[in-house]
């Protein structure tokens, strides 16, 4: 499938994948993340059963301390 | 736009600043200089010695409430700015109420979990509010790593990776770069409206 990940086109060799699987494939190991799919917030407790489809626009924001 | 036209437009705008540390104090001062009408600033902390390496406070303000010290400093620069302060620890229970009437909210926390709280609370309760985030500015050098991107109403300023640590402290130059980048983003949002 073709998705947009953080404003960039991304090709993934799967028909469907969960948010958890995406994080694994992309090696996002950080614990402080904010994720949106098509502009809608996806909270951590539903990463396993929220699925990304072809054409979705996904934003993964890694929060780092400092300010 | 001339500076007069800019000031005329900005004087009717309200900007929320969530946190009055390195990002918040410097961002608020930049916005005050260009003539923002109202700033709503919240922080629960007091000024300490360790803040002076990057935050817009002075040695003789040690021990003062950050929101009050910052209000005084801004009034010395531009007394026309209306400054509303909240000496409070922001949380998911109060943040929307405090900032709901703003045109833009600047995320200026130090801790990642507080940044997450702000983003998630607004995306759930008030998803159309423009949020200007400061993410990743510890250390020194690496000018080109500091960047900007936008994702709908999230405006992200910083290198998005350098986390503060004992050996990688937040320092005035890079924190100031991101704070001013946030202020610059606020102007872009308000002046293009």
Describe the protein's architecture and organization.
The complex is a heterodimer of chains A (67) and B (193). With 67 residues, chain A is mainly beta. Chain A has one domain: Beta-grasp domain (Ubiquitin-like (UB roll), Roll), CATH 3.10.20. Helix content of chain A is 10%, strand content 39%. Chain A contains one helix and seven strands. Chain A has one helix spanning 19-25; strands at residues 2-5, 8-11, 17-18, 33-37, 40-42, 51-52, 57-62. In chain A, the strands form two sheets. Chain A has a five-stranded mixed sheet, with no helix packed on it. Chain A has a two-stranded antiparallel ribbon with strand order 3-6. With 193 residues, chain B is an alpha/beta fold. Chain B has one domain (3-191): NAD(P)-binding Rossmann-like Domain (Rossmann fold, 3-Layer(aba) Sandwich), CATH 3.40.50. Chain B has six helices and seven strands, in the order αβαβαβαβαβββα. Chain B has a seven-stranded mixed sheet with strand order 3-2-1-4-5-7-6, sandwiched between helices. Chain B is globular. The two termini of chain B are 13 Å apart. The A-B interface holds A 6-7, 32, 34, 36, 39, 41, 43, 59, 61-67 and B 19, 21-24, 108-113, 115-116, 119-120, 123-124, 127, 133-138, 149, 151-152, 154, 156, 160-164, 170, 175.
């Amino acid at each position: 499938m073709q998705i947009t990940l953080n404003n960039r086109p991304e090709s993934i060799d799967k028909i469907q994948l969960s948010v958890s699987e995406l994080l694994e494939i992309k090696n996002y190991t950080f614990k402080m993340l904010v994720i949106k799919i098509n502009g809608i917030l996806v909270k951590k407790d539903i990463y396993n059963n929220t699925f990304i489809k072809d054409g979705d626009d996904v934003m993964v924001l890694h929060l780092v301390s400092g300010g | 736009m001339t500076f007069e036209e800019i000031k005329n437009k900005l004087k009717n705008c309200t900007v929320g600043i969530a946190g009055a540390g390195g990002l918040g104090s410097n961002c608020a001062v930049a916005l005050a200089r260009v003539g923002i009408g109202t700033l709503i600033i919240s922080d629960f902390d007091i000024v300490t010695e360790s803040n002076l390496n990057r935050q817009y406070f002075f040695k003789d303000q040690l021990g003062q409430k950050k929101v009050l010290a910052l209000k005084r400093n801004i009034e010395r620069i531009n007394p026309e700015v209306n400054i509303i302060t909240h000496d409070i620890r922001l949380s998911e229970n109060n943040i929307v109420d405090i900032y709901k009437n703003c045109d833009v909210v600047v995320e200026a926390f130090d801790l990642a979990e507080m940044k997450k709280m702000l983003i998630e609370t607004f995306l759930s309760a008030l998803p159309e509010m423009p949020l200007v985030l400061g993410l990743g500015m510890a250390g020194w050098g690496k000018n080109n790593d500091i960047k900007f991107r936008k994702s709908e109403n999230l405006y992200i300023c910083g290198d998005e990776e350098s986390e503060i640590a004992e050996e990688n402290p937040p320092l005035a130059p890079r924190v100031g770069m991101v704070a001013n980048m946030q202020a610059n983003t606020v102007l872009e949002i308000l002046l293009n409206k």
